[in-house]
Amino acid sequence: MQPNDLAGLVFETPHILVALLDRELRFVRVNEAYAASTRRPAEELIGRGHFELYPHPENEALFRRVLETGEPYHAFERPFAHPDQSERGTTYWDWTLAAVREGGAITGVLATIIDVTEHVQTRARLIEAEHRAAQAEKLEALGLMAAGIAHDVNNALAVIGTCIEVARTRRRNDEEIAEQLEAIDVSTAKAASTVRQLLAFGRRQVLVPELIDLGDVVRGHAQLLAHAVGREVRIAVDVAPDVPRACVDRVQLEGALTNLVMNARDSMPEGGRIGVVVREAVLDAPRDEVPAGRYATIAVEDEGEGMDELVRRRVFEPFFTTKGAAHGTGLGLASVYGFVQQSGAHVTVESEPGRGSTFRLFFPAHTASARRARILAAVDDPVITRALSALPHDVHVVRTADEALDALRTSSFELLVTDERIAGTTGAALVARARASSAGLRALYLGGTSDAPRDAPQLAKPFTSDALRAAIDALLR
């Protein structure tokens, strides 16, 4: 039996896998691409049964149906697991099975296969990227809304708190009124805690970053975490040596750790082990939306119920929870997400149902800037001016917004450092105007309020010279 002329042409096509089989489904001829895919010489395949080498009852039934009916079979993006090449994982193929005839009789099957694995995987990556982008936009919108609501509620809580204090001073001897005021005060404190979490998610909390050793923070916080999770849960701390320092707000980091550990505890109602692991990570290429670079990382690992893909995708949404109304507000992980984003860091989640979860925080490793940069500093505080002038950079200091904008029109700068208040405007307004004329200008906001631009890192006052240097180095990396 010889293939017809059309089959002969197909055999010469390098990117198509072609195999000719007889009625017993033995190999009669294969092209080089097919032999290469099996990692066997063509001579080793000829005369051997296809399904003797690669048992697969479902596929064998398809081949035999073509032999019996003479009707071709087409399949698109059909998954295939290589039984003797497990390292290849699952590949995806477009198949065509066609009957081969001689003198009107069906004498065999011609299989043509195109490997579309790369196409399928690329499409999956694009879909995932589109979902991540949509999710990021949704979280951004929710963050703006949450921050706006939080500020309004904060104002109301401030009025309530003041009224409580006034009422207490006027009704000191009325026990019934005192109890009611105490109840109001407790509820106000709970509401204020919720507002702080909303501000964290909306990236509007005031951060005080400093150069810290993540391992020291984890070890120092471990005892408090152990008390918080209870006796049924064991906290296992694992800190590798020589993990680089990072520029992080210590207090907010401890709060994020607490939220992650309590979330892990809640996923293990029968108790278990929670690992808190500190490591250095060097990414040569982006991974899970984390850019390439050197990081100090903290991973919180649990042995809990795990999450399916749907829950994992929504885990950082505010008020989203699988625990029920009696177990929290659904803001714990949202506030972790906001803190991480505001810190210029990243967070990833690995989880499968029944296999626990791992939340990993990536903080850029601190490295002193090895190059001189041109910095525009819009500040009028002489102490801050001296600290900036001592940096190993070319620092141009101005005292008003107009001077800053004039400097930007006549010179180029890599970084704008601005105080929260500057003659003529606010720091936030100056950043907005500066970026309108100098697209891509990085900015560092010096202040102690939450009025900083959302996309400008904030160094809260008071700060040390080391913290200032670390914040600037991080932005110049």
Strand order of the largest sheet: 2-1-5-4-3
CATH architecture of the largest domain: 2-Layer Sandwich
Domain module count: 4
State the helicity in percent bands: 40-55%
Low-confidence stretches: none
Would you tell me which CATH topology of the largest domain applies?
Heat Shock Protein 90
* Rg result: 32 Å
The counted number of beta strands is: 19
CATH H-tier superfamily of the largest domain = Histidine kinase-like ATPase, C-terminal domain
Brief write-up:
With 477 residues, the chain is of the alpha/beta class.
Features:
26% strand, 477 residues, Beta-Lactamase, five-stranded antiparallel sheet, 15 helices, five-stranded mixed sheet, 4 domains, Heat Shock Protein 90, alpha/beta
Describe this structure in words.
The chain has 477 residues and is an alpha/beta fold. The chain has 4 domains: 5-115, 2-Layer Sandwich (Beta-Lactamase); 128-201; 209-364, Heat Shock Protein 90, CATH 3.30.565.10; 374-476, Response regulator (Rossmann fold). The chain is built from 15 helices and 19 strands. The strands form 5 sheets. The protein has a 5-stranded antiparallel sheet with strand order 2-1-5-4-3. A 5-stranded mixed sheet has the order 7-9-10-12-11. A hairpin with a 2-residue loop joins strand 16 and strand 17 (425-426). The chain is elongated and about 110 Å long. The model has no long low-confidence stretch (mean pLDDT 80).
